[in-house]
Amino acid sequence: MKPVLSKLLLACGLALSLPALADTWLIRDARVFDGEQLHARRSVLVRDEKIVDADFRGAAPPDARIVEGAGRTLLPGLIDAHVHAFQQFELPLLFGVTTQLDMFTSVSVLQDMNDRMRRHDNRTRADVISAGTLVTAPDGHGTEYGMTIPTLTRPEDAQSFVDARIAEGSHFIKIVMEDGGNRFKFKTLDLATVRAVIAAAHKRGKLAVVHIGNLANARAALEAGADGLAHLFVGRGLSEAEVQDFVQLAREKRAFIVPTLSVLESVAGLHADELLADAGLTALLTNEELAPLKVNFGQQPVAAVMTSPRQLVAALARAGVPLLAGTDAGNPGTQYGISLLHEVAALAQAGLTPVQALAAATSAPARAFRLQDRGRIANGYKADLVLVQGDAASDVTALHHIVEVWKDGTVLTEARQAKQQQVAQALQQRQQGYAALPDGGRISQFTPEHLGSALGMGWMASSDQMMGGQSQVDLKVLEAEADGQRPLDIRARVATGFAFPWAGVAYMPGAQPLQPADLRAAKVLRFRVKGDGQRYVVAMLSSGSRIPVNVGFATSDSWQEVALRLEEFRGVDFGAVTMIAFNAGPRAGDYQFQLADVRLVSQ
């Protein structure tokens, strides 16, 4: 190889291996919310990864690319103070969220993100500052996701447990105080162990943040020395004395609170309808990415249970207790990035001023989590910026109208445009027509040899054992009934050991397990059933959702036909159904029912 050509190829190889250098940008004559206060008119100069002049004056540098800010608001990159980052790492940036504070993810994700940020090679993803593995009891909240994690039982082991998390790369320590609700129960850490973990974290200079589920645990965590609470809690209202006592305690302990109104609304069965109705926002989300916003933890709306958290948010804001905007994205009713726009609006509706609500998503989480390089528009800070149309400091819904996003000084115009094109193309393909259903709509073909179907891969036993539970199910095809259909006999033993125990039979409409299938031609699910008189559920899951939507049905000792309109399964994407299951649970005990002639029909 000739020396000149060899040097040229080497230079090209180095260019491809190194991250692209960011440009120089001048955002000129914008309203600037610097993380704490609004400046009516300022220009901000960015060079490479940093803000070099937060109040630039004079002629534009000759190498600067100029963005006009008139009629617009420039803000620091938004910070979501409560997520579970395990997927869709590029998505937050499209909505201006440049940093996520993660409350529980896998060690591999934690270490990969730490490595990316250490190399300054994370321009295409939101930064993730993570607790890594949370601190919980055996069979406690956090153990129900089908992954094995270490757990803690004794205060004497708290220091070694915390040290192990720090060695893995955890930035702070997340602790669980959660015993569940009326429908399910978790084991939880005792107060002595919680105190020991908080002390162990503080000994190593780390923050200790506590997940709580009720007022008593919230007070106990603060009294034990927690730096902050990762949630508030639902309830139909607190007394004035309860509110004031809690606020006073939070002030005395100098704690911060992450209300997570978005996920609490999901528990209450409420949807972020303004997000789903905004075509400019949904143009950045595929149907799979929209799916989590359409389903909730609570399947029936009970708005009254949002009274308690909204009471507390208003009182905490008045008292000056730091409130951080966090969504609990990764859970039903939320989605990375976009849900923070709703969270900021929800905080404003609960009693924060627009400026306070914006600070809750910028400077407040940066200050609380000791992130000294972000959350502000100031000299030397990271060039993580969001430019929106309108005056966001007067109306936080201006955050819906993003003009531009910068991550580490790199503009994301092309990424946002590419995502819009991807979504538009997928929508066009989807509008070309529905997939055909089997003749007569029957999806059950039960024989002793095979639980088959004319559509998809067929049927299989399903239980919470796949998530580490202990429920069991036995399936047996019986002799044909008078109409010639062989029924499937399902005998289930639902056992405690998983938060939401179940056992039953699942139909997979795709060619592989959990592969999506287009069932939009169907309007009704019909089936024949008889059983032990107990109630069961049809559970339906679609692509992008991790928790199925359930609709109940009753059984008796004689055959009956059940017809469920698919519109009852609110939030399911019928163009991408991955599973239809017939389940016993969640009450522990023995169940028996028979299923036959299952059909998906147009009426």
TrEMBL record:
Residues 73-412 form the Amidohydrolase-related domain. Residues 458-577 form the NADH:ubiquinone oxidoreductase intermediate-associated protein domain. Keywords: Hydrolase, Signal. One of its GO terms (molecular function) is hydrolase activity, acting on carbon-nitrogen (but not peptide) bonds. InterPro entries: Amidohydro-rel, Galactose-bd-like_sf, Metal-dep_hydrolase_composite, Metal_Hydrolase, Metallo-dep_Hydrolase, NADH-UbQ_OxRdtase-assoc_prot30. Gene3D superfamilies: Amidohydrolase, Urease, subunit C, domain 1. It comes from the Bacteria. It holds the Pfam family CIA30. SUPFAM superfamilies: Composite domain of metallo-dependent hydrolases, Galactose-binding domain-like, Metallo-dependent hydrolases. This is Amidohydrolase family protein.
